């Protein structure tokens, strides 16, 4: 079955206005992977070997210790979900990713992607732009976590990520905000 690449094409056109040379060849290398809800797709202490694009569904990204999981991101719209530092630098990740719903991914293995990078400039600009966006998001995330209250963070989710609040279980949202589900419930009552 040929993968549905309409969303990834749209993503590149809006997020990464890249050199078109090589883009079709890159897109032809992606294959479709369908996963069930609650499937672990990335585990800490492993190396990213695939570039993954979320075509449909929802995924949570989190850190885990022996007694606690802390959500750090949710992916609910078509976008790349690969841990880029691990993928590009051949290092082990510290993150986990798990499906929250059934998902459809488009995937390409690392070697095929690197071959395209060698052949065309479009891949290099994609990596550069991706790292810049990733660093900007990480800095904003850290700044907000340190300087804002849980209620302020929840209000930002209401404004900027309302789809998260509608589609992601509340205990995951509480973990993302680094509060208990009971505290989240109190915040929601105060705001409504």
UniProtKB/TrEMBL annotation:
Pfam families: cNMP_binding. Residues 18-117 form the Cyclic nucleotide-binding domain. Gene3D superfamilies: Jelly Rolls. InterPro entries: cNMP-bd_dom, cNMP-bd_dom_sf, RmlC-like_jellyroll. This is Crp/Fnr family transcriptional regulator. It comes from Aquimarina hainanensis.
